[in-house]
Specification:
268 residues, alpha/beta, TIM Barrel, eight-stranded parallel β-sheet, two-stranded antiparallel ribbon, 10 strands, globular, binds nickel (II) ion
Length: 268
């Protein structure tokens, strides 16, 4: 892994492990090689966990893992993509997970914002099957929960996986329940948004040994890049904001998140 550390801001050098990104997205088609091969490592990005969210995405993730030393992968079916799957989808996911550097089942979960994309019952069926798979394979999960906090929690309570609830959007109360299940919480660009009261509360209260940092790139770029394409180097803005909220050094936040990410996903 590259130990090449360059400053992002003038004031300090920071190392970044992005625990949740989508570099298979077509938004990176024009400059993926430049970004992953050069720019991001130069900006201090030492690790990326890429999410497979549908069948082509899982395949692309396996390829990214073999091309870039510091890229790891997760394979899973996102709730928005759960409607029309081939009959053998679960064994396909399992096969991708047997590839090198595939360290988690994700991105999986429930999304009640886009019910047109996939009805609730089907989302729950696909989520449950993948929680079961993760437990059987002894792998952690990366969970997506949008406007489905209560149901997501009850599935997590039932299956008790290891893992992270990514891009956490719930209240402090929900955060405490998630932490109570031994899970990690992933925070990203949202903590920098003006209206992000929940995320700021969670950033302040979360024990440092349960925090993961993430982009969800190409989405969710932090202020002052909000609305633009996100990439892993911009986690520096998230780190600065969390450090400010907690009154701690950015380096402390960054290092804790790196340690947590490696521990959860078994990366040495
Ligand atoms: Ni995502």
């Amino acid at each position: 892994m590259s130990e090449n550390i360059l400053p992002i801001f003038d004031s300090h050098a920071i190392r970044i492990f992005d625990s949740h990104a989508h570099y298979d997205s077509e938004q990176f088609d024009n400059d993926r090689e430049q970004l992953l091969g050069e720019t991001l490592p130069q900006k201090g990005v030492i690790g990326i966990l890429n999410m497979g969210s549908d069948i082509p995405g899982c395949e692309a993730t396996v390829k990214l893992c073999s091309r870039y030393e510091y890229v790891y992968g997760a394979a899973g079916i996102h709730p928005e993509c759960a409607k029309d799957l081939p009959e053998d989808w679960l064994s396909q996911v399992e096969r991708w997970l047997s590839e090198e550097k595939m360290v988690a089942v994700g991105e999986i979960g429930l999304d009640y914002h886009w019910l047109d994309a996939c009805p609730k019952e089907r989302q729950q069926e696909v989520f449950a099957a993948q929680l079961e798979l993760a437990n059987r394979l002894g792998l952690p999960v990366v969970v997506h929960d949008r406007e489905a906090h209560a149901d997501t929690l009850s599935f997590l309570e039932k299956y008790r996986p290891r893992g992270v609830v990514h891009c956490f959007s719930g209240s402090l109360e929900t955060a405490r329940q998630v932490l109570g299940l031994g899970l990690y919480i992933g925070l990203g660009g949202v903590v920098t948004f003006k209206n992000a009261r929940h995320a700021v509360d969670v950033a302040r209260e979360i024990p440092l040994d349960r925090l993961l940092l993430e982009t969800d790139a190409p989405y969710m770029a932090p202020v002052p890049y909000r609305g633009k394409r996100n990439d892993s180097s911009l986690i520096a803005c998230v780190i600065e904001k969390i450090a400010e909220i907690r009154g701690e050094e950015p380096q402390t936040i960054a290092n804790a998140a790196i340690e947590n990410t490696k521990k959860l996903f078994g990366i040495s």
